[in-house]
Amino acid sequence: MADRPRVGEALDLAPHPEGGWYRQTWVSTETVALPDGRVRPTATLIYFLLPAGESSAWHRVASEEVWLAHTGVVALQLGGDAERPQPGPILRVATGEEAQALVPAGVWQRTLPGDADALVSCLVSPGFDFADFELADG
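^ thats the sequence. predicted structure below, dont judge the formating
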């Protein structure tokens, strides 16, 4: 594991299984029942730090995600909703540019390396649970 970046220290971020660093900062007190009967908070929020030159693995979650830029630029590549990721459009999430991006539920995604550290928040609805998180094979 790489050393935690200074911003990661300041925000008390932990390594994320997909790559980068994160910390959950909010969980809604309201809940929703999913079609399969499981209950989730209506939404959750995290900080996500992607250090310069690093990327995340292809992954997907069962909920919608809204990415919100704080500092730097995150290049977020979408990969469709097939069984395996199919590299597709790249969204730039950056302060002073497109400061928000939506990843639909069940869509593969990954971040691409950037030239500088980037800090975003990620709002997930219904709320995030690692039980709904899938990393691509290989």
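DSSP finds one helix and 13 strands in the chain.
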